[in-house]
Amino acid sequence: MQQPTQVKEATTQVKVNVQVPGNHAMVSLLGTRDELLKLIEAAFESTVFVRGNEITIAGEREDAERVARLFQELISLLDQGNALTAETVGRSIDMVREGGERPSAVFGDAVITVRGGRSITPKTTGQKRYVDAIRNNTIVFGIGPAGTGKTYLAMAVAVQALLTKRTNRLILTRPAVEAGEKLGFLPGTLSEKIDPYLRPLYDALYEMMDAEQISRYMERGTIEVAPLAYMRGRTLNDSFIVLDEAQNTTPEQMKMFLTRLGFNSKAVVTGDITQIDLPAGQHSGMNVVREILTGIDGLAFMYLSSRDVVRHRIVQDIVEAYRRYDEARS
Fold first, then answer.
1. What is the pTM of this model?
2. Contacts of 6 (CB under 8 A, 6+ apart)
3. What pLDDT is recorded for position 64?
């Protein structure tokens, strides 16, 4: 791609030019009826002019150069085969403003490709760092509010590791808090007893793999979905384990789980410390490990925030409102 060129003016204003490769239709970059262009213009102080395959940005130097970098990143996303949407452009604007990860590096990181050719990718800088931490560490704690993708992305990395034979077994587990882990007192078969607690894990799994493939793997024991109580007394070798809703573990349960890890295994522990459902007076295992497991090589704590929420934008606003409320009360 041709680098942007600057045309200096006598004032503090500058003009920055970006050439759009001929293989990209401008409508892909700017949107139907220029709706993507309007998003960009509303987010910055600079003025954008389009003529043929050339985009000229006029404004204060820092702002104009930032807009030029944004267009370069959007062109790179098109080069990678990504379709630009209002959400993609909006999040790209946030990344360029923050000066952190490049949007093309974030959205271009296909964790796994699922049915229909759809790729599961990070959607925010925080999610990208989280995925990288999972790849590079033995144990990762993913802590953040609902909708930040902490469980979904962990499972995507785990399923990809299984399909590419980098791990031999996938184990998905959660605590069954409401039943006190005493599932024998509930009516029905074992499957019927634990299904309500494990359903979110099944739902994510079926998004990433074919039903027949999942059935075969589960019959062989290659994939196991079980409540946390069933991990006791085991050593998990050659496995990728995801512990979900870990804020609802007791300190004893958390210690039990972490000491199950065997050779050539990896674990991701996810939870939202603002939604602890344990009985009053009971400490959360997630909070305890944050105090004692520091400075251990191969173990990382990754914190996601309301900025990483990828559900409807109103969810991000709700999460942020609750955060402010909790801070005001503390």
1. 0.83
2. 14, 15, 16, 17
3. 94
